[in-house]
């Protein structure tokens, strides 16, 4: 049960409140940050002495694959993955296993040990939302939510093709409420539908089979719907031609489509106190930029195209990205982009799983290993770090590995240390294939991010981007009492001593969730309640009724009845709806 807690004398990094390493005390009462505690409360409070340590808000991962059918397929098709990492049962915690795709209990403990308290599942197929919520509910400690995959949805493509934006918006609003999801995910727009027929789309203006709608029309339509509804977050875009040499060009052109779309975040929430404006100011959130940034024409002449896209983003204010870094080693590639996974299968011959989710989307899963000796893999490592270092404004970037695609989230400490330590990058460069240096810009970058920058990339900006900064990503009064304490003294920080940084980031000294200490030096010590967030989006009743007439008519093509389609709240852990467009 959350009581009172005082975190004393730490060096605080809270970018949403423009606090950059000031020695401060943080007070929490009943799970929320408060300005101060009374003398009586201080006598009974839990006390953390953070003297000489770094204090940040709890980590927020806005893009990870941690729950749902494709994640579970990754677990089941990789028994070898579970032999490599095992967690014993304790009096408090469950047992668990899995390295790249850990079991639900283990992934919750692993995130908390590193200082993370909030994680969002990046791709929820509507038909599989119940399964996704069951796994999120069983994941301990983490507040969670999920993005609904809509870029190849039959109903939505029909409405967009016919130009019926009102019904399209009503459909999106109904789907969010129906499946208890949070934001719009768009994967390989118009292309995944073609994959059901063994094809893809290769340009923004190529129409797909049957629906005769283009990726450009899907991106434009979903972006406009997103703002019409006042959604918490931008459209989360996985661009076309991902992972192909030359794909950087279509990625940059895709980012131009939402330019000029006016953002409108319309949430009825209680906002924490911050110095920065918490309202959303981006119209598109591009996912895993690294995988969308290959230049060249073949794998023989491929090179990094990150700089070209970074130059565009540096001069625009409507784009935010996450990096999709590849920290070498084992990974499990899983995505709603079925054609992309099949291409990897033809390249590697690895075992491969492919699924078509009826009238909604598809996915694929494939085990993968990133090797320093491999020229393309070494280039990808460099490109992932370029995504975070070439974009000048850290408020346009979010650090991820697209876990487990680029590598498991447990590799975040390595990524954090690479972007903070040029010495660590040089050491890794010396072990890589020469392509990492020859075909990227990374070797010429001497930028080292600060702890303040890191707090932006891993806390403040993920929360602000997805509309959770009203309670996450800051230590302002009214924010959730989620805090990470790292055993790093900013006054003695030596970027050349990267081993010390790695140790500190791998196991936070303390992780506090909702005002309770949940991990101490990587050991789980309590299991407080968690929440599941979703968007309850409001539209005019007549519009919804008209739309549902269409949906019920078309629903005869599904393999289940309409009444069994929705996800009841009982599938969610402590369901917490965000009221969107509620004045309707």
UniProtKB/TrEMBL annotation:
<protein>
    <submittedName>
        <fullName>Formylmethanofuran dehydrogenase subunit A</fullName>
    </submittedName>
</protein>
<dbReference type="InterPro" id="IPR032466">
    <property type="entry name" value="Metal_Hydrolase"/>
</dbReference>
<dbReference type="InterPro" id="IPR012027">
    <property type="entry name" value="Formylmethanofuran_DH_asu"/>
</dbReference>
<dbReference type="Pfam" id="PF07969">
    <property type="entry name" value="Amidohydro_3"/>
</dbReference>
<dbReference type="GO" id="GO:0016810">
    <property type="term" value="F:hydrolase activity, acting on carbon-nitrogen (but not peptide) bonds"/>
</dbReference>
<dbReference type="InterPro" id="IPR011059">
    <property type="entry name" value="Metal-dep_hydrolase_composite"/>
</dbReference>
<dbReference type="InterPro" id="IPR050378">
    <property type="entry name" value="Metallo-dep_Hydrolases_sf"/>
</dbReference>
<dbReference type="InterPro" id="IPR013108">
    <property type="entry name" value="Amidohydro_3"/>
</dbReference>
<feature type="domain" description="Amidohydrolase 3">
    <location>
        <begin position="47"/>
        <end position="519"/>
    </location>
</feature>
């Amino acid at each position: 049960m959350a009581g009172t807690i005082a975190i004393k004398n730490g060096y605080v990094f809270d970018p949403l409140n423009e606090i950059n390493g000031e020695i401060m005390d943080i007070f929490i009462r009943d799970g929320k940050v408060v300005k101060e505690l009374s003398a009586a409360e201080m006598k009974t409070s839990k006390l953390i002495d953070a003297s000489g340590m770094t204090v940040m808000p709890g980590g927020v991962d806005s893009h990870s694959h941690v729950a749902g059918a494709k994640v579970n397929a990754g677990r089941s098709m990789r028994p070898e993955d579970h032999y490599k990492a095992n967690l014993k049962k304790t009096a408090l915690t469950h047992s668990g296993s899995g390295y790249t795709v850990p079991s639900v209990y283990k992934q919750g403990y692993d995130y908390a040990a590193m200082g993370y308290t909030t994680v969002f599942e990046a791709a929820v197929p509507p038909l599989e939302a119940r399964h996704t919520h069951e796994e999120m509910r069983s994941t301990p400690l983490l507040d969670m939510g999920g993005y609904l995959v809509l870029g190849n949805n039959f109903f939505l493509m029909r409405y967009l093709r016919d130009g019926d934006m009102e019904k399209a918006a009503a459909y999106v609003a109904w789907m969010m409420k129906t499946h208890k999801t949070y934001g719009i995910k768009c994967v390989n727009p118009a292309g995944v539908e073609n994959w059901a027929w063994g094809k893809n789309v290769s340009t923004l203006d190529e129409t797909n089979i049957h629906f005769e709608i283009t990726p450009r029309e899907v991106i434009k339509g979903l972006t406009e719907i997103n703002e019409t509804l006042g959604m918490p977050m931008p459209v989360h875009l996985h661009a076309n031609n991902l992972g192909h040499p030359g794909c950087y060009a279509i990625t940059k052109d895709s980012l131009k489509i939402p330019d000029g779309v006016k953002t409108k975040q319309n949430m009825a929430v209680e906002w924490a106190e911050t110095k920065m404006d918490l309202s959303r100011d981006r119209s598109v959130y591009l996912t895993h930029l690294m995988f969308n940034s290959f230049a060249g024409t073949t794998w023989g002449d491929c090179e990094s195209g990150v700089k070209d896209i970074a130059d565009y983003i540096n001069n625009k204010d409507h784009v935010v990205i996450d990096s999709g870094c590849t920290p070498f080693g084992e990974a499990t590639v899983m995505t709603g982009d079925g054609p992309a996974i099949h291409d990897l299968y033809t390249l590697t011959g690895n075992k491969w799983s492919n699924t078509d989710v009826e009238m909604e989307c598809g996915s694929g899963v494939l085990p993968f290993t990133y090797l320093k000796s491999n020229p393309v893999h070494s280039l990808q490592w460099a490109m992932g770090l370029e995504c975070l270092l070439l974009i000048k404004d850290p408020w346009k970037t979010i650090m991820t590995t697209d876990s487990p695609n680029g590598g498991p989230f447990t590799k975040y400490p390595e990524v954090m240390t690479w972007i903070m330590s040029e010495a660590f990058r040089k050491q890794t460069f010396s072990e890589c294939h020469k392509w990492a240096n020859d075909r990227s810009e990374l070797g010429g970058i001497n930028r080292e991010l600060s702890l303040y920058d890191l707090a932006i990339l891993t806390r403040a900006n993920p929360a602000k981007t997805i509309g959770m900064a009203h309670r996450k990503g800051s230590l302002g009064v009214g924010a959730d009492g989620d805090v990470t304490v790292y055993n790093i003294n900013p006054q003695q920080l030596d970027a050349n001593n990267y081993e010390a940084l790695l140790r500190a980031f791998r196991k936070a000294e303390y992780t506090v969730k909702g005002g309770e200490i949940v991990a101490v030096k990587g050991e789980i010590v309590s299991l407080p309640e968690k929440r599941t967030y979703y968007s309850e989006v409001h539209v005019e009743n007549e519009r919804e009724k008209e739309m549902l007439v269409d949906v019920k008519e078309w629903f005869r093509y599904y393999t289940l009845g309409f009444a069994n389609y929705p996800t009841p709240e009982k599938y969610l852990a402590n369901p917490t709806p965000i009221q969107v467009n509620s004045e309707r």
